[in-house]
Amino acid sequence: MLMYIYIYSLIFLFISGVLVYIFKYKHFLLMLISLESMVVSLYVLIFFYCGQFTFEYFISLFYLTLSVCESSLGLSLLVMLIRTYGSDMLLSYDSLW
Length: 97
Description:
Elements: H1 2-23, H2 28-52, H3 58-85
Helix pairs in contact: 1-2, 2-3
C-alpha cells in the first residue's frame, strides 16, 4: 500500500514537471529545473520497477548516466547564454529562433 503512495507521488512529480515546462517557458533555468525533476522522478520509478520485478539495476545506472550528461549539457548552454546575452530569458533572443 505504501509503495502505491510513492508511485503516485512520483507520477504527480513528473506531471507537475511537465506542466512547469509547458507554462514557464520564458526562463531557461526554470525549464532545466523542471526537466531535472522529470528525470529524477523517472529514475526512481525505473528503480522501483526493477526492484518490484527483480530485474537488474543496470538499466537504472545507464539512465542515470545519460541524465547526468543531459544536465551538464543544459548547464553549459545556460552559462553560454548568460555570458553571451546577459540573461536567461528565452523570448528576448531574436537570433535563436
